[in-house]
């Protein structure tokens, strides 16, 4: 029912899909993307980025950038996450992604159940990254962008395994954090990291 209403509300409108990656990790930024697809240049294979192989994501990342009418990456840094909280930092990053588009959309479709404050109409779509092509495209751009950045951070801060777990609190990551302690890329407001600073 939601999809039928959504398709009706999108008819004749320039639609941007918006998604985020990186709300759960203990380190690194939260990264968002906004994408306006070109209906005359369809992209086959779009889906929730988590359901695609890394090879497929990388290929679609290039194709989306080549074929989309407009795309933009937004982000919120660790300092902003700690100052605002992860939800508000994510909303800020989404705003930045939408504002960075070279074309102003008529409607923004946001993955999830909340919308950031935007200058155009916006609608939240639960599990939209698997249902709406524009959101799927945004999820792919955001994930590939963040994964690449985490590989760079892994080289800067060896020993934590960041390239593998992307900052998420896996047992191996928590063990490394316990042994090595947090670096400047860690989110101090997140419980597993915060305890290192509680005696400061």
Describe this structure in words.
The chain has 200 residues and is an alpha/beta fold. It has a single domain, classed as Nucleotidyltransferase, domain 5. The protein has eight helices and five strands. It has helices at 2-10, 54-67, 78-84, 86-99, 133-156, 162-165, 171-180, 191-194; strands spanning 15-21, 30-36, 70-76, 107-111, 121-125. The protein has a five-stranded mixed beta sheet with strand order 3-2-1-4-5. Helix 2 (54-67) packs across helix 5 and helix 3 (78-84) crosses helix 4. It is globular, with a radius of gyration of 17 Å. The model has no long low-confidence stretch (mean pLDDT 94).
Summary, kept brief:
By secondary structure, the protein is of the alpha/beta class. It has eight helices and five strands, in the order αββαβααββαααα.
Topology:
Blueprint: H1 2-10, E1 15-21, E2 30-36, H2 54-67, E3 70-76, H3 78-84, H4 86-99, E4 107-111, E5 121-125, H5 133-156, H6 162-165, H7 171-180, H8 191-194
Parallel strand pairs: 1-4, 4-5
Antiparallel strand pairs: 1-2, 2-3
Helix pairs in contact: 2-5, 3-4
């Amino acid at each position: 029912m939601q999809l039928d209403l959504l398709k009706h509300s999108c008819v004749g409108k320039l639609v941007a899909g918006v998604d985020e990656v990186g709300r759960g990790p203990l380190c690194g930024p939260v990264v968002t993307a906004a994408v306006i697809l070109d209906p005359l240049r369809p992209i086959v294979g779009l889906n929730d980025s988590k359901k695609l192989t890394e090879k497929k994501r990388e290929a679609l990342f290039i194709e989306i950038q080549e074929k989309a009418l407009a795309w933009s990456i937004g982000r919120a840094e660790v300092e902003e996450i700690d100052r605002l909280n992860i939800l508000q930092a994510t909303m800020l990053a989404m705003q930045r992604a939408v504002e960075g588009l070279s074309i102003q959309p008529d409607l923004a479709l946001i993955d999830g159940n909340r919308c950031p404050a935007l200058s155009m109409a916006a609608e939240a779509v639960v599990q939209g990254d698997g249902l709406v092509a524009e959101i799927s495209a945004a999820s792919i751009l955001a994930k590939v962008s963040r994964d690449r950045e985490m590989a760079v951070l892994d080289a800067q801060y060896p020993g934590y395994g960041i390239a593998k777990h992307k900052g998420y609190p896996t047992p191996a990551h928590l063990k490394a954090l316990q042994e090595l302690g947090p670096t400047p890329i860690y989110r101090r407001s997140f419980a597993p990291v915060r305890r290192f600073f509680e005696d400061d």
